[in-house]
Design brief:
Blueprint: H1 14-22, H2 30-33, E1 38-41, E2 46-53, E3 75-82, E4 86-93, H3 94-97, H4 108-140, E5 142-144, E6 151-154, H5 155-158, E7 167-168, H6 180-195, E8 205-210, H7 212-219, H8 222-227, H9 234-239, E9 245-248, E10 251-255, E11 271-277, E12 283-287, E13 304-309, E14 316-323, E15 325-329, E16 336-339
Parallel strand pairs: 1-12, 7-16, 8-10
Antiparallel strand pairs: 2-3, 4-14, 5-6, 8-11, 9-10, 11-16, 12-15, 13-14
Length: 346
């Protein structure tokens, strides 16, 4: 017999349940797999972000005995930002559990725990997709809510920076100038590196998330085809593999695969978003502690899971998972956007 009292056992307490959910594998997602966002656990819901703009200057020569030039102090600006709350739950009813029977060596608790983990994994998939949605927003410079329009953080306006003008890659040109595409790529990489004010070191690389149309037209551009003509990878380009990646002009180009509805988590079809990987502190994610007593004033974790029993009738128990993230782009001036503008024939 399965009793709702089973949820009072240790495996269903908040700490153990959170630890059990942490062992569930997430669905692989591109930005998450790049390990782009450095995790910063926080003890509070408010996170201070400090920007320091230090400039490099030539040091003038001075005569022997004269005082040396004085180093100007870096200008600093620390501002508070709040983490957001993501929460989702599911209700497990006693009626659903009564038909669970023991199979082999499995106990009733193992059976019930499996049902909790099954439902918990579905919630975690939704939370992970929400994180990917926020990561994507951060590399665009504007993080929006699930409705796609409510702005959570516009990192350009937060730091008083004008968003760079989108770059036309001239991919609709039927007769492009040979080598022009490679030059445009080099110009973009140099521009991003200079805007980073030293954050993009020698090991940093530039990546692009491309919508379908942008990727297809880019991969069939004469400059790209010519570059790969004598390489084994040329076969892959000729096959036109969707949702793949390749390197050209010092940039790694990804055909980004979002959600199948092409809108919930997506890159516009005629657009590419450029961002650095390996740039110091460019992208971070702060996780705040949960709103529940066991985790008050502790370092934040990516998520928290708990069960809430029906104490009056023991008819159901709820499984809920919470996350309190802040996805940060500390240098939005480095970000760039590429577009396809129609060829006017002029």
């Amino acid at each position: 017999m399965v009793s709702m009292d089973i949820f009072k056992a240790d495996p269903f307490q908040m700490t153990q349940l959170t630890a059990a959910f942490e062992r569930i594998d997430y669905r692989p997602q591109l930005l998450g797999s790049l390990n782009l966002f450095r995790q910063e656990p926080s003890r509070t819901r408010t996170v201070f972000i400090e920007r320091r703009n230090g400039a490099l200057n030539l040091v003038p020569t001075t005569p022997i005995g004269a005082p040396p030039s004085e180093l100007d102090n870096d200008k600093r600006d620390a501002r508070p930002f709040s983490t957001v709350r993501i929460a989702k739950g599911t209700t497990i009813y006693a009626e659903e559990l009564q038909n669970i029977r023991q199979f082999g060596s499995e106990t009733e608790m193992a059976q019930v725990q499996g049902e909790v983990l099954r439902r918990g994994s579905r919630i975690l998939e939704d939370i992970e997709m929400t994180w990917e949605h926020m990561r994507l927003g951060a590399i665009k410079g504007v993080v929006v809510d699930a409705d796609g329009s409510s702005v959570i953080n516009n990192w350009f306006t937060e730091f008083g920076i004008a968003a760079p003008t989108p770059i036309d890659f001239d991919l609709d040109n039927a007769n492009p100038v040979p080598g022009a595409l490679r030059v445009k790529c080099h110009e973009l990489v140099r521009s991003m590196a200079r805007s980073s004010q030293g954050a993009m070191g020698p090991s940093a690389t530039v990546h692009a998330l491309c919508g379908d149309e942008f990727y297809d037209k880019f991969i069939t551009h004469p400059d790209v085809e010519k570059t790969y003509l004598n390489y084994a990878a040329a076969a892959d380009l000729r096959e036109g593999k969707a949702f793949d990646a390749f390197t050209f002009g010092g940039i790694t180009w990804h055909n980004y695969r979002g959600t199948d509805d092409e809108s919930t988590v997506s890159v516009a079809s005629d657009t590419a978003h450029f961002f650095p990987v390996g740039a110091a502190d460019m992208f971070q994610v702060a996780f705040a502690p949960s709103e529940f007593m066991p985790y008050t004033n502790t370092l934040g974790r990516p998520f928290y899971s708990l069960t809430i029993p029906d104490r009056d009738r023991q008819a159901w128990t709820r499984v809920e998972t919470y996350s309190y993230p802040l996805f940060i782009c500390s240098r939005p001036e480095v970000l760039r956007t590429g577009v396809i503008e129609p060829d006017t024939g002029a």
